[in-house]
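ok so for the tutorial part 2 we go from a plain amino acid sequence to predicted C-alpha cells. step 1 is just haveing the sequence, like this:
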Amino acid sequence: MTINHLNLIVTDVINNVKLFETYFDFNCEFIQGENGIAVLKNMNNFTLVIMNNKQNDIIYPKDFHFGFITDNAEQVDSLYKKLVDGGLEIIHPPRKIRDSYTFYFHFDKLFIEIGHYL
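step 2 — the prediction. this is what the C-alpha cells look like for a chain of 118 residues:
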C-alpha cells in the first residue's frame, strides 16, 4: 500500500499551483473557479489537491509539515538557490539536522521541508 494523494488547504490556490509547478515538477490538471480548487500530478502519479478555505480560518498544527526528499545534497542546495532566487524568504539555509541535510520554509499556510537523508 502507498499514499497516493494529499489535500492541502491554502489561502491562494493560484500562487500555490505556481509554486508546485515551478519548483516541484507538478503539472496542474484541473482548476475550478478563480481560487477554488486545483488538482496537480507529478511524474510518479502522485495527486496534490490544493483547496481554498473561503472562511480564511486555516490553522495547521504548529509543527505540521510535509517534505520532499532529494537524491543528494547538491539537489537540496540547488533547490534552495532556485527558491531564494525566485523571491521566497527562507530563514535558514540547508544544514545537517539529525540524519539529513535539509531546510524548511513557509509558503502561504504551508510548512515545507526539502532534504536528503545522509
